[in-house]
Design a protein that fits this description.
CATH topology of the largest domain: Alkaline Phosphatase, subunit A
CATH superfamily of the largest domain: Alkaline Phosphatase, subunit A
Number of domains: 2
Number of strands: 9
Distance between the termini: 77 Å
CATH architecture of the largest domain: 3-Layer(aba) Sandwich
Radius of gyration: 27 Å
Largest sheet: 7 strands, mixed
Number of helices: 20
Strand order of the largest sheet: 2-7-6-1-5-3-4
Shape: elongated
CATH class of the largest domain: Alpha Beta
């Protein structure tokens, strides 16, 4: 009788669908054990054998496992068109998450969503082979098979109730995760839609930016140029001790007393958008990441201050023709001239054209404040310079399979887009730097696939956050270049160069590079691509004094 009862139970279509849902969920966990964070999470549980953490981890793992199984079970009760929609939602999440895991060794974050939704498709052409992860086809195919095996569901008037029930269950998991009740965020598709929801509900999207009142002072008689390069790693510049002669022109500027070099500084973030947002607002990184995100939209930008001080403002973008770096259309009211790829082009000479534009402005006038987002050295690195500019080889045919060769095209790109850029910008530095100060850094750096990294940037390693930082020109004081600098020191330095009085500064910023000394050392932090705060110098809290 027991055997007959068991047979009858599993001959029931609903029971069969539930069993299929369990098997599919288990299959998903097995796949993600090998291709994503589940493997690392379970290893974490094994290592933490004492205390309450292993128990909490197992309970929350069971909770997210059952929630996903219930979602899948609900989908098997839908008509075929409903299962098609469910399969589509699963496919989008899986393709995106597995692609980001392959490219960055993490899942998509809110900052990635901002970038994806504003970036043209041409930006992703070179990286398409990195993002396409064939493992994503496994769960998609498995779901299609299970949906077919689940058979047709008899029509019911109340089938639509399955959607709100499913979303209530998903919402419960989301709220639990947001409040820290869950230690395991669950499968990749769960995490994808949690991220999308948090992005859509982000309160920072409704924040009004502060303004700066006009400052009563004499019209500025100097020029200030703020150059933000793309993907330049500080330790690959000859002036920072690199073994290759990648920046001989910068070395000559240094030897002739035109450069103040802070060496390798710490970027605010390892993704372009968050790093640029921090650079133009001067927001200091703190442990509360939600406050940091809100402040980058609330604080006035460097353009607000420049306009208040009477400068004519320029924003040059050699990468795009849209706003992507934390600026909004409302901020354009404080930018007198916005030049982009329509003026500079999209080929490898875009930075050189930008140098020509800036040089012409500097040669003919003063009282200008210029910000340039350079084209820099994007992946694939051999596409960052013309073939005749190749100095080092061979060039890898597969970056991941030949990591030792990656530095060759990268260094070629650094020579062409950094050294040759400044040679083009400053052919006569004695004359051009007479009334001009140039502050240079990069938004973030690159892993160069070293130490087993399988991603370019936008992650958590120190290499990705190690950027150059120097000033060209004649400063009113002799700065302490031994001070360990970071991106947060840049905006207050620009405000000092603009002679912005302290009473007109809307926030308390980090120390200016013109005033900071080694006695002011602070623990530096940066923000990873998944919006986690990473310590750079020590495990102390961000901004705490260092010995």
């Amino acid at each position: 009788m027991k055997k007959l009862s068991l047979v009858l139970k599993f001959s029931n279509p609903d029971n069969q669908r539930f069993l299929l849902a369990l098997l599919f969920t288990l299959f998903m966990y097995v796949v993600e054990h090998f291709v994503s964070s589940q493997q690392g999470y379970f290893l974490f549980l094994v290592e933490r054998r004492q205390g309450i953490e292993p128990l909490t981890g197992l309970l929350t793992t069971a909770m997210t496992f059952l929630a996903f199984a219930v979602f899948t079970w609900f989908s098997f009760h839908l008509p075929l068109w409903g299962r098609f929609i469910w399969a589509g939602l699963l496919s989008i999440a899986t393709l995106v998450q597995y692609g980001y895991w392959k490219a960055f060794h993490r899942f998509i974050s809110e900052i990635d969503l901002d970038t994806v939704l504003t970036a043209p498709l041409r930006m992703w052409n070179d990286a398409a082979n990195i993002f396409l992860n064939a493992f994503a086809l496994l769960p998609i195919g498995a779901y299609v098979i299970c949906a077919i095996l689940a058979g047709k569901k008899k029509s019911s008037r109340n089938w639509w109730l399955l959607f709100p029930v499913a979303f209530v269950l998903w919402g419960t998991v989301l709220i639990s995760q947001y409040n820290g009740w869950l230690t395991n965020p669950g499968l990749s598709s769960f995490q994808f839609y949690q991220t999308v929801t948090q992005w859509a509900l982000s309160g920072s999207r409704h924040t009004t930016r502060q303004t700066v009142e006009p400052i009563q002072q004499n019209p500025p008689v100097n020029n200030i140029v703020f150059i933000i390069d793309e993907s330049i790693r500080g330790d690959h510049l000859q002036v920072n001790g690199y073994e290759r002669n990648t920046t001989p022109y910068l070395a000559s500027l240094y030897n002739n007393g035109y450069m103040y070099n802070w060496g390798i500084a710490v970027a605010g973030g390892t993704c372009s958008q968050i790093a640029n947002s921090l650079l133009i607002t001067g927001v200091q990184i703190a442990d509360n990441i939600n406050n940091v995100k809100k402040q980058t939209i609330e604080y006035p930008t460097v353009f607000h201050y420049a306009r208040a001080a009477g400068y004519k403002t320029y924003y040059l973008d050699a990468q795009t023709d849209y706003l992507w770096n934390g600026l909004t259309f409302n901020d354009l009211a404080y930018i007198d001239n916005w030049l982009n790829i329509h003026q500079m082009g999209t080929d490898v000479h875009a930075d050189q054209r930008a140098a020509d534009i800036i040089r012409n402005i500097l040669d003919t006038s003063t009282g200008n404040f210029i910000v340039l987002n350079k084209r820099g050295v994007h992946f694939l690195y051999e596409h960052s310079y013309p073939p005749e500019a190749k100095l080092w080889g061979p060039i890898p045919t597969d970056y991941m399979e030949e990591p030792d060769l990656v530095k060759n095209p990268y260094d070629n790109g650094v020579y062409f887009n950094v050294n040759e850029f400044f040679k083009q910008l400053l052919p006569d530095p004695q004359r051009q730097l007479q009334h001009t100060i140039i502050l240079y850094t990069s938004d973030h750096a690159q892993t160069l696939f070293e130490e087993g990294a399988t991603w370019l940037h936008c992650n958590f390693t120190h290499a990705e956050a190690s950027v150059p930082l120097f000033i060209l020109g004649k400063l009113p004081v002799q700065p302490d270049t031994a001070y360990p600098a970071s991106h947060s020191n840049i905006l207050p330095t620009l405000l000092d160069l603009m002679s912005i009085p302290l009473e007109h500064r809307r926030q308390n910023y980090a120390p200016s590079l013109l005033k900071a000394t080694t006695l002011d050392r602070q623990n530096r932090c940066f923000i990873s691509g998944n919006m986690q705060v990473i310590r750079y110098d020590s495990e102390k809290s961000c901004g705490s004094p260092l010995p």
